[in-house]
Every structure is written in structure tokens, then in C-alpha cells.
Amino acid sequence: MKALRTDNFRALCAEYGISTKTGYKWRERMLQQGLQGMVEHSRRPGRHAHQLSEEVICEIVRLKLAHPHWGPRKLRALYARRHGRAASESSFKRVLGRSGLTQPRRRRQPAGMGGRLWSQHRGQAPNEVWTVDFKGWWYDPQGQRCEPLTVRDEYSRYVLAIERLANARTDTVRQCFERLFAQHGLPGAIRSDNGAPFAQVQGLLGLSRLSAWWVALGIDLERGRPGHPQDNGAHERLHRDMDRELTLGGAEQAALDLWRQEFNEERPHEALGLKCPGQVYRPSERPYTGTPEDLAYQGMSSRRVKQHGCICWESQPLFITTSLAGWSVGLKPDDDGRLEVWFGRLLLGWIEPATHSFQRADIRPLEAGQP
Prior knowledge:
The chain is of the alpha+beta class and 371 residues long. The protein is 29% helix and 18% strand. It folds into 4 domains: 9-36; 54-98; 129-280, Nucleotidyltransferase, domain 5 (2-Layer Sandwich); 301-360, no CATH class. Strands 1, 2, 3, 4, 5 and 6 form a 6-stranded mixed beta sheet that branches. Strands 7-10-11-12-13 form a 5-stranded antiparallel beta sheet, with no helix packed on it. α3 (54-66) packs across α4 (72-83) and α4 (72-83) crosses α5 (89-98).
């Protein structure tokens, strides 16, 4: 063994093949910590330029506690909106993970897409398509049945209404839509399921009194397939968020309004580039001027539908549907010698002059150039 030389420390370091700086570092560790100081330490710096301060970490935790169902991406967008800038998304994930505020996400198997829906399209601008549904009823603490009606704009995800309604009758729902139309204008189309009061599964083209009113206002109809709520999946997702974040059994209208305001004005949406729905939505350019007394048909003759659902044609009653009672339909000859029966932009079917019968039409998109 070589004799330890202490008279020339630099020469000693050179003899063992290390720099003088490293030699002094190991000597100081030996003097301060003994043999424990000779263990290799982590090279990770104790601090770095982008390390989060305690104040930032506490604010991230506060935001998560206020929005327990939001992920790090949404929380980061909210933080940046409030404070002007924010740490990286990975930093938010790390803080939430170390705080025990995240849970592993369960992966779902993708469901089949199923068949195509008639005339259904995704809105490419605000008010192209509104979606509507009932959340489902419950009894409040006073024992009254409540059915919250939810209406949203598909493109912007803006929730137009969450209304506690005493019932789902046509007149009750229509009053709610009259208020929405007066405030936001008319949409291009409304998508619903096939339940009352939006539709009648066995009725002509599924028309109900409520959806007939929408058609009279110039609004197109879109529907999902019976028994397939995934056809209006984004709206169902809204209902799941309400289930998780609201105590619906005791939720007063004020609580629903507060949740809707937060959803529209604070909650970032990934499909909107982490903007809030309220930053994207704008009122419709089609104002609501009230319900017309009746519909006029250019280049057609017209017949008024009676209360029992019939029109009078060649002095004989011809049944169409009771959903259009009080409205007029247009009659137009086609190339096959029949009469097309129209309600607004909907082709209802054909009258066969030879048999004095009405043949119902299948649902189909409107052809270009048709009224």
C-alpha cells in the first residue's frame, strides 16, 4: 500500500487520478460526515430555476379541491387565466399526484358507432345545432317531482338552460324554449331523443306538437335512434358531469344556475383549445319574432289540419296527423301524378288521387331547391 502523503495535497490528488476540486470535496465530506460522507450522492440539484414555490403549490391544490373532477389540463388553463401564466401541465400532474388528489383513469372499451342517423351533422358554428334532453326526475325535500330540462349548443358546448320543471308536458317545455329563443335567437336545428314531448315514435315522421312548432319556426329536426343515447353522447356526458358534481336531490334552481355559470364561464374545454364555452358562444343571427299564425306555401295549394288530424281534400277527410292540428300543409303535384304533402321544409308523404289515400314518407334530408 502506498504511504499517504499529506504535505502536498495537489500532488496527492494527481497521484490518485482525480482533480484537486474533487479531492477537496471528498475531504470536506469526510471531515463533516465521517465514512457516511463517502457514499455517492444524487446529482439532482436541490433547487432549480423552475421549481414551484409553496404559494403556487398551495394554489394548485386549492383549485383541485374546488374542482375535484377537473384534470391537470383544465386546472392549468384556469390558473393561467387567473394569474397570467402557469407552470407546465406535467408540473400540475406532479403536484396533484404527490398530494394524493389524482386517481388512475379506468380505460373504457370503445363502443360501436352503429348506423348513420338521418340528416345528423355536427355543428360547425354556434347555433347550428342545439341539443336537448331531460336529466331525469327526482323528488325534492318537499316531495315535489322535478325534471331538469337541459339545453346546450353543440359547437361551443355552451349550456343554454338547466331548468327545474314541474312536469314534461308540451306547454311547460314550450314556455322554456320561448324564453331561450327570445334571449339567444333561433338555432338551425334541434337534436333530441324520441321521447315525449320532443317526438312521438309512432307518429308521422315522429312529429309531436312541440317539434311541429319548431318546424313552423324554421328549425330543422334531428333525432337519435330509439334506445341509443350514445347518438346524443355529448349531451349525456353533460348529465354525467351534473351527477358527479351536484347533489341533485336537494338542488334548488339557484344551485343549478351557479353550476351552469361555472361550466360556461370558468371550465376550460379541451375541444375548444381550453377556452370556456362562454368565450366561444354568441347569440344567433336569426331573431325570434314570435310564433307565426300559419305557414304559407309558395306555388302550392294549402289545407288546414283539423283538430282530429284530417285535411279536407276533394270534399273528403284525409287523415295526416293530430300533431299538426291548427297548422296548414302544402300540396304540390309530382311527376308521378301524386300530390306531395309538405309541412314547412318537411315532406310528409303523398296523396294518391286514384285511391284517395295518404302514403307516409320516410325521414330523409331535404333536397336542394325544395321549399
